[in-house]
C-alpha cells in the first residue's frame, strides 16, 4: 500500500497544560492542495509546526513518506519541506536572488544549477529577472511573497507547507498569486498543506479540506465540505 507523504496519528499537544491539539489523525494526499481551515486559535499553525518537526507533539506520531520523524535528524527531513509564512522572512541584507538561492548554497548545489532553478522559478511566478538584484525593501508585499514562494521551492521539495501566506495581501494581489500557485501545481505538482481562515481561498485552491475546531479535526473531505464549513461559520458552532 502506498504511504502518504504526510500522516498524523493521534496527535495531542498542550501548551502549559492547555490542550491545543486533541487526538488529531490525518493523512494528506500526494500532490494535492489540502487547506486546513479554522478560526483564530483553533490550532492551525501548531499543526503545521508539528508536521515540520518544529514542535514535537506531546503524544502521537508524525510520519513523512511512511517514516516516523526522526527528531535527531530533523534538518535532513526539513529539506523535503518548503515552508512559507505570512511574514515572508526574506533576509533584508541579501538580494532577492541571494534570498531565493540560499538553501541551494547550504546543500552545496552547483552554482549553475541553482541559477537555472532561480530563473525558472522567478519566471513561473512572473517576477522580472532584474528584481534578482534588488533588496526585499524595494519590492511590494506581493512581490516579496512571490520571492518567498520561490525560495521555498528552490530544492523542489515534495511537500510545501504554507501558513496564511497571503493573509496580508490585497484582493487582486492574492488572486494573482493563487493563479501562480495553481500554475506551479500543474507544472510541478507537490503536496501542499495550506493553513487559512479564508473560505474563498479554500474554494479556489483546495483539492481537500480539513476543518479544525478547538484542536480537533471536525470535518475532512474534498472541497465540497466547504459548504458545510460555511454553515458552521455562520451559525457560530
Ligand atoms: N508557544 C505558545 N505557547 C503557549 N500558547 C500558545 C503558543 N502558540 C500558540 N499558543 C496558543 O495555542 C492556541 C492555538 O494557537 P495556533 O497559533 O496554533 O492557532 P491558529 O489556529 O494558527 O491561530 P491564528 O489563526 O490566530 O494564527 C491559541 O490559543 C494560542 O494562544
Automatic annotation (TrEMBL):
Keyword rRNA processing included in the entry's annotation: no
- Do you know which InterPro entries this protein is assigned to? AAA+_ATPase, ABC_SmlMolc_Importer, ABC_transporter-like_ATP-bd, ABC_transporter-like_CS, P-loop_NTPase
**GO terms for molecular function, please?**
ATP binding
Query: Does the keyword section mention Transcription?
Result: no
UniProt-listed PROSITE patterns? ABC_TRANSPORTER_1, ABC_TRANSPORTER_2
| Entry keyword set | ATP-binding, Nucleotide-binding, Transport
Q: Which residues form the ABC transporter domain?
A: 6-237
Q: Which protein is depicted?
A: ATP-binding cassette domain-containing protein
Q: Which organism is it from?
A: Ohtaekwangia kribbensis
Amino acid at each position: 500500500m502506498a504511504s502518504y507523504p504526510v500522516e498524523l496519528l493521534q496527535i495531542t499537544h498542550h501548551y502549559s497544560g492547555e490542550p491545543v491539539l486533541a487526538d488529531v489523525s490525518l493523512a494528506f494526499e500526494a500532490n494535492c492542495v489540502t487547506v486546513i481551515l479554522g478560526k483564530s486559535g483553533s490550532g492551525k499553525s501548531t499543526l503545521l509546526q508539528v508536521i515540520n518537526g518544529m514542535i514535537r507533539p506531546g503524544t502521537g506520531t508524525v510520519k513523512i513518506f511512511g517514516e516516523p520523524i526522526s527528531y535527531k535528524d530533523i534538518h535532513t527531513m526539513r529539506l523535503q519541506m518548503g515552508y512559507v509564512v505570512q511574514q515572508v522572512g526574506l533576509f533584508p541584507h541579501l538580494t532577492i536572488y541571494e534570498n531565493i538561492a540560499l538553501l541551494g548554497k547550504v546543500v552545496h548545489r552547483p552554482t549553475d544549477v541553482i541559477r537555472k532553478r532561480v530563473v525558472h522559478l522567478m519566471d513561473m511566478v512572473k517576477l522580472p529577472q532584474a528584481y534578482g538584484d534588488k533588496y526585499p525593501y524595494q519590492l511590494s508585499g506581493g512581490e516579496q511573497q512571490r520571492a518567498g514562494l520561490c525560495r521555498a521551492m528552490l530544492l523542489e521539495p515534495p511537500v510545501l507547507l504554507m501558513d496564511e501566506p497571503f493573509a496580508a495581501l490585497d484582493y487582486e494581489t492574492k488572486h494573482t498569486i493563487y493563479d501562480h500557485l495553481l500554475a506551479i501545481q500543474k507544472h510541478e505538482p507537490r503536496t501542499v498543506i495550506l493553513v487559512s481562515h479564508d473560505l474563498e481561498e479554500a474554494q479556489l485552491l483546495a483539492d481537500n479540506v480539513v476543518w479544525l475546531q478547538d484542536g480537533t479535526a471536525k470535518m475532512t473531505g474534498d472541497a465540497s465540505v466547504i459548504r458545510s464549513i460555511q454553515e458552521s461559520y455562520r451559525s457560530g458552532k
